[in-house]
Specification:
By secondary structure, the protein is mostly helical. The chain has 6 helices and no strands.
């Protein structure tokens, strides 16, 4: 019985590690408003540095979360995206990713 109790306690302690923040698409729709200024325009090219801005609606949830976290950490480089991502909470990122992953036209 003691072994079962210890195992159960260990599982409960590890639960937060397994917990994944899931986003709320409705909240994400409001939070993603700024994103649509660049990513919601088909064929948009920004001025500096000059490159094609991808449409992100319908993109994979996990990819969106990973990309925003990489910008937040500075391992993905783009000054505007780094600033945007650093202003978001973990829940904001999850909400935005949930909304964008579940829409085709923000």
């Amino acid at each position: 019985m003691r072994l079962i109790s210890v195992a159960l306690l260990a599982l409960m302690a590890a639960a937060p590690v397994w917990a994944e923040v899931k986003g709320d698409p409705a909240a994400g729709k409001v939070k993603a408003y700024t994103c649509t200024g660049c990513h919601g325009i088909t064929g948009y090219r920004n001025v500096y540095p000059h490159f094609h801005v991808p449409r992100i609606a319908g993109q994979n949830y996990e990819y969106l979360v990973a990309a925003l976290k990489a910008y937040e950490a500075g391992t993905r480089k783009h000054s505007t995206m780094v600033a945007q991502a650093q202003s978001l909470s973990e829940q904001d990122i999850a909400d935005i990713a949930a909304y964008l992953a579940n829409t085709t036209n923000p």
